[in-house]
Amino acid sequence: MKLNEVYNQIINLDPVAKFIFTFIIGLGAFLYKTFLNLYSEDDKQNQQIKVKEGELLGKLEASIAIYEKSEKDLTAQDKLIEKFGECYCYLSWEYKQKVRLFYENRSDSTLATLKKLISSRIDSIFTFGEKPLLVDQIPSFITKICRPLIPLVTVFIMLALLGVNYSAFLKANTFWGKLDVMVSWVTVVLSLVFFLTTINILIENKWRRGLGFKPWAYITIIILCPFTAYLIHPKLIAFTVIIQILSLVALFKTKNKQSNA
Predict the structure, then answer these.
(1) What is the spatial distance between Cα 241 and Cα 83, in angstroms, rounded to a whole number?
(2) pTM above the 0.70 mark?
(3) Do 244 and 238 meet the contact criterion of CB atoms below 8 Å apart?
(4) CA dist 112 to 74, 81, 107, 109, Å?
């Protein structure tokens, strides 16, 4: 379909349809700008954190180099461990596990592994004032444009589901029929929220390898069980909310165990 044909169809819409169409476009533009500004502010805060991280990791790398040339006595080890403690909050999960291992064994091999990880992380942080290459800027630019689309699409899908659910709710004649519609809507929305959250984690590159198999298994169950039930029989969708609630409880218990470990 050509653009002029689309334009003519829009022009020939009745006033109510034009108002709805204009409202949706305006709402979409407003929400996109709002989410874009939120992400931009978040990027500024993250940039400040990266500056602090670069400074601390640079000092930590220097402390490791000093320690390697020292006599490696107990006093030198304690000073190095104190330096690790200063940087601990800026380390990733993988780095923290290596640091804890060094706390226990204080071996040169563990420290050598840590030094490689820290050096690699420092090298990945751009030198302040250095302008990144165009090749490096393109993926970042595309990510900045696409990130606000995830919450935007989520909002419109939620509104569409709400409209469909409201229509089905009005058509239901019995209490149990209305309850079935509401529970089915809740289970589909819950699945959608977890799915879009997972997509956002992947786009933000915040995949945490230390999360383990069980939490991701529970998340997968929460996402897939409504659609699996629908394929078996549409009437089963409402019952999947029980499976989702049990999976959520198990997920929170697993997370609490990992936090307390």
Answers:
(1) 49
(2) no
(3) no
(4) 18, 14, 9, 5
Q: How many CA atoms lie within 13 A of 206 on its CB side?
A: 6
Give, to the nearest 10 degrees, the angle between helix 15-68 and helix 134-146.
Answer: 130
Paired tokens of 37: 């500004």
Say which residue the tokens 């419109």 belong to: 156
CA distance 238 to 229: 9
Rounded to 5°, angle at Cα 212 from 243 and 224: 30
Cβ atoms of 257 and 250 within 8 Å: the answer is: no
Contact (CB, 8 A) for 260 and 209: no
In order along its 261 residues, the chain shows pLDDT tens digits of: 555 665 566 666 667 767 777 888 888 888 888 988 888 888 888 888 888 888 888 889 999 999 988 888 888 888 898 989 888 888 877 788 888 888 888 888 889 888 998 888 888 776 666 666 666 677 777 878 888 888 888 888 888 878 887 888 888 888 888 888 888 888 888 888 888 778 767 766 555 555 667 888 888 898 898 888 888 887 788 788 889 899 888 888 877 665 555
